[in-house]
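Handover notes (outgoing to incoming on-call)

Open items:
1. HSP20-like chaperone: sequence verified, structure written out, both below. Nothing else pending on this one.
2. Nothing else urgent.
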Amino acid sequence: MPSVTYMNQWGGWGGRGRSFNPFEFAAGLFDPDQADKNKDSEDFSPETDVFDTPSSFYIHISLPGAKKEDVGVNWDAEKSELSIAGVIYRPGDEDFLKTLAMDERKVGPFERKIRLGTRANPAQIDAEGITAKLEDGVLRVEVPKLEKEGFVEVRKVDIE
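HSP20-like chaperone structure tokens:
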């Protein structure tokens, strides 16, 4: 199915990291069960805050109900991209889950990719210093920047 990525009123790309599919939207208008099927089959993209300080990037990802063993954090230096992926499970056994009367929480597989810097000017990151801590439903990732040299090295080239 074709999808459309749109810009929202705040200048970000819409759908909280998702693309808008007009066919799925229209199907949900006429068949609410179809909307639920589409919602359940897609990964979701958790809400994220990114702070850019002189020494580090700090990324806070909202993951209520996630366990640290079910979440992975990876740094791709080539793309200058931090990738957070995993799964959030709904607690309870199968019989209990069959009694679900209201379904509002985001559960299931998720993925969020965050580019630090730009393609033309990627962030200079100390990959060995990246740390992550999951506490109170928030994953906190610190991505330290490499120290910038206070001077520019100029090398004299001898002419033959």
